Amino acid sequence: VQLVESGGGSVQTGGSLRLSCAASGLTVSTYCMAWFRQAPGKEREGVAGIYSDDGSTTYGDSVRGRFTISRDNAKNTLDLQMNSLKTEDTAVYYCTTMSLWGQGTQVTVS
Questions:
Q1: How far apart are CA 21 and CA 42, in angstroms?
Q2: Which residues are CB-contacts of 22 (< 8 A; sequence separation ≥ 6)?
Q3: Calpha distance 48→80 (Å, rounded)
Q4: For 56, which DSSP code?
Q5: How far lies 2's CA from each of 6, 11, 22, 102, 110, in Å?
Q6: Nearest CA to 64 among 52, 48, 50, 80?
Q7: Tell me: the pLDDT tens digits for 36-57?
Q8: Is 101 helix (H, G, I), strand (E, B) or coil?
Q9: Are strands 57-59 and 105-109 parallel, antiparallel or unpaired?
Q10: In 1-110, where do the E strands start and end?
Q11: Three-class SS of residue 1?
């Protein structure tokens, strides 16, 4: 059972990236899942979450209106569309079921 993030990279301020988290050994639609991030010298913070029952979503104040969390049930992935990126979005991004974590993917905005 594992989660593997991809899609990170370097982008200019105002740009976009789409992160994807591929799940194996579990079905993403049956779990409440979330994206967290951790910037250097800072604590890990929640970015966005999606509930298993009705697919409702929640966002951190700093990303609301810019980021969108979604599930692709056919691909069994959890995705994060990030638009209007800011330098303060620079961090390692992790997907999680809250008991299982991926290894993270680096996002750098400059």
A1: 23
A2: 3, 4, 6, 75, 76, 77
A3: 8
A4: -
A5: 13, 27, 8, 7, 31
A6: 48
A7: 999 999 999 999 999 998 999 9
A8: strand
A9: unpaired
A10: 2-6, 9-11, 17-24, 33-38, 45-50, 57-59, 67-72, 77-82, 91-96, 105-109
A11: coil
Q: What is the pLDDT of residues 70-109, one digit of tens each?
A: 999 999 999 999 999 999 999 999 999 999 999 999 999 9
- Cα gap 92→89, rounded to integer Å: 9
74 vs 24: CA distance, rounded Å? 13
HEC-encoded secondary structure of 73-84: CCCCEEEEEECC
